[in-house]
Amino acid sequence: MSVSGKKILIAVSGGIAAYKIHFLIRDFVKKGAEVQVIMTPDAEKFVTKLSLSTLSKKPVYTDFYGDNGTWNSHVELALWADVIIVAPCTSNTLSKMVHGTCDNLLIATYMSAKCPVFIAPAMDLDMYQHPSTKKNLELAESYGHYIIPAESGELASGLIGQGRMAEPETIVKKIEEFFNSTQHKTLEGKTILITAGPTYEAIDPVRFIGNHSSGKMGFSLAEEAAKRGAKVILISGPSAEKTNIQNIEIHRVTSAKEMLEEVFQFYENVDVAIASAAVADYAPKEVAKEKIKKNDDNLTIELIKNPDILKTMGEKKNHQFLVGFALETQNEEENAKGKLEKKNLDMIVLNSLRDEGAGFKNDTNKIKIFTKTEKTEFDLKSKDEVAKDIFNFIENQLLK
Ligand code: C5P
């Protein structure tokens, strides 16, 4: 992982966290990056141009108009950068960025940029929680920018809570990870199909049979594959998850039957297929046309088996590398290995609901991976980290 030789434009706005930017610049410069700092006029009240330019070894700009009648070109600055980091990003600067209020050099530079933009917000507790801040951060994400969330702790106001700018080490790590993933497009040229989320099986026009799957694991897998350069076809059941990463083509479906149909639109031409969806095993035999009335004490709904999408993929497999998931509550390993065999898979990812932090809804997961010959255990990690482990494993298998 390296930022060596990278051109990093640090855009500082006027918050107390600006003092931490000295450490950020020093870290990047030590790692061999070229750093250019620009500031809003207010930022100068917190830190001096002299200290920042001494560390970055370049003049620091706040204004379009330089000394001796020169002009600081926001376009040149923007096109020079491999990445822009707005840190600290105040509520004011965030709002100007997302709404295009271009009244200073920092915003003009940001608006002229074509490179990735990272935003490290820093605000007081209530400002960070304000609906307008949340909306603006969402807007920034919808433009494809990366948010480095504020951390919790004691704030300059004396209040305690979320709002502190992420520590310089965290920011450096994010940027390193970003360059690392873009430098190593290990799945370039591959097409990967992923199923995600639950399925809903209609009982009547207002009710359904479903499950607690959030779709988080499938979306993390899709994002990781896309970061590694793959073309991703993500077929998701009803899930609140969203993504704005390029290279991910999302197809939203509701029922298992719809998921099956959508999968087989693409299956023939994919290199890897991963079934992480929690597909409902049964669906009502008939869907009532009108809302079922509450008449009798008992209501019986006849269920019939849904198609097993993954099993069908296994039957039709020719060149695809096929990955299944097993979410188990008992005899976990035995059941997972059974599914590997029965569904003709190349690998299966097991998560047990008996492991704390694993399975549905959580942001974390704890997995074991089985192939026909190997078993590998992993620690409890965030679903994004788990997605990395899964793709590292898949890539090794593809090389065999
Ligand atoms: O047999 P079981 O449902 O436990 O297997 C789980 C695996 O099979 C998961 O990968 C899941 O996505 C997939 N599956 C499927 N279609 C179904 C049921 C499960 O693709 N109807």
UniProtKB/TrEMBL annotation:
<dbReference type="InterPro" id="IPR007085">
    <property type="entry name" value="DNA/pantothenate-metab_flavo_C"/>
</dbReference>
<dbReference type="InterPro" id="IPR005252">
    <property type="entry name" value="CoaBC"/>
</dbReference>
<dbReference type="GO" id="GO:0004633">
    <property type="term" value="F:phosphopantothenoylcysteine decarboxylase activity"/>
</dbReference>
<feature type="binding site">
    <location>
        <position position="339"/>
    </location>
    <ligand>
        <name>CTP</name>
    </ligand>
</feature>
<comment type="function">
    <text>Catalyzes two sequential steps in the biosynthesis of coenzyme A. In the first step cysteine is conjugated to 4'-phosphopantothenate to form 4-phosphopantothenoylcysteine. In the second step the latter compound is decarboxylated to form 4'-phosphopantotheine.</text>
</comment>
<comment type="similarity">
    <text>In the N-terminal section; belongs to the HFCD (homo-oligomeric flavin containing Cys decarboxylase) superfamily.</text>
</comment>
<feature type="binding site">
    <location>
        <position position="291"/>
    </location>
    <ligand>
        <name>CTP</name>
    </ligand>
</feature>
<protein>
    <recommendedName>
        <fullName>Coenzyme A biosynthesis bifunctional protein CoaBC</fullName>
        <ecNumber>4.1.1.36</ecNumber>
        <ecNumber>6.3.2.5</ecNumber>
    </recommendedName>
</protein>
<keyword id="KW-0511">Multifunctional enzyme</keyword>
<keyword id="KW-0479">Metal-binding</keyword>
<feature type="domain" description="DNA/pantothenate metabolism flavoprotein C-terminal">
    <location>
        <begin position="187"/>
        <end position="396"/>
    </location>
</feature>
<keyword id="KW-0460">Magnesium</keyword>
<keyword id="KW-0456">Lyase</keyword>
<feature type="binding site">
    <location>
        <position position="343"/>
    </location>
    <ligand>
        <name>CTP</name>
    </ligand>
</feature>
<comment type="pathway">
    <text>Cofactor biosynthesis; coenzyme A biosynthesis; CoA from (R)-pantothenate: step 2/5.</text>
</comment>
<keyword id="KW-0285">Flavoprotein</keyword>
<feature type="binding site">
    <location>
        <position position="325"/>
    </location>
    <ligand>
        <name>CTP</name>
    </ligand>
</feature>
<keyword id="KW-0288">FMN</keyword>
<dbReference type="Pfam" id="PF04127">
    <property type="entry name" value="DFP"/>
</dbReference>
<dbReference type="InterPro" id="IPR003382">
    <property type="entry name" value="Flavoprotein"/>
</dbReference>
<comment type="similarity">
    <text>In the C-terminal section; belongs to the PPC synthetase family.</text>
</comment>
<feature type="domain" description="Flavoprotein">
    <location>
        <begin position="6"/>
        <end position="177"/>
    </location>
</feature>
<keyword id="KW-0436">Ligase</keyword>
<dbReference type="GO" id="GO:0004632">
    <property type="term" value="F:phosphopantothenate--cysteine ligase activity"/>
</dbReference>
<dbReference type="InterPro" id="IPR035929">
    <property type="entry name" value="CoaB-like_sf"/>
</dbReference>
<feature type="region of interest" description="Phosphopantothenate--cysteine ligase">
    <location>
        <begin position="192"/>
        <end position="400"/>
    </location>
</feature>
<comment type="pathway">
    <text>Cofactor biosynthesis; coenzyme A biosynthesis; CoA from (R)-pantothenate: step 3/5.</text>
</comment>
<feature type="binding site">
    <location>
        <position position="281"/>
    </location>
    <ligand>
        <name>CTP</name>
    </ligand>
</feature>
<comment type="function">
    <text>Catalyzes two steps in the biosynthesis of coenzyme A. In the first step cysteine is conjugated to 4'-phosphopantothenate to form 4-phosphopantothenoylcysteine, in the latter compound is decarboxylated to form 4'-phosphopantotheine.</text>
</comment>
<dbReference type="Pfam" id="PF02441">
    <property type="entry name" value="Flavoprotein"/>
</dbReference>
<feature type="region of interest" description="Phosphopantothenoylcysteine decarboxylase">
    <location>
        <begin position="1"/>
        <end position="191"/>
    </location>
</feature>
<dbReference type="InterPro" id="IPR036551">
    <property type="entry name" value="Flavin_trans-like"/>
</dbReference>
<keyword id="KW-0210">Decarboxylase</keyword>
<feature type="binding site">
    <location>
        <begin position="307"/>
        <end position="310"/>
    </location>
    <ligand>
        <name>CTP</name>
    </ligand>
</feature>
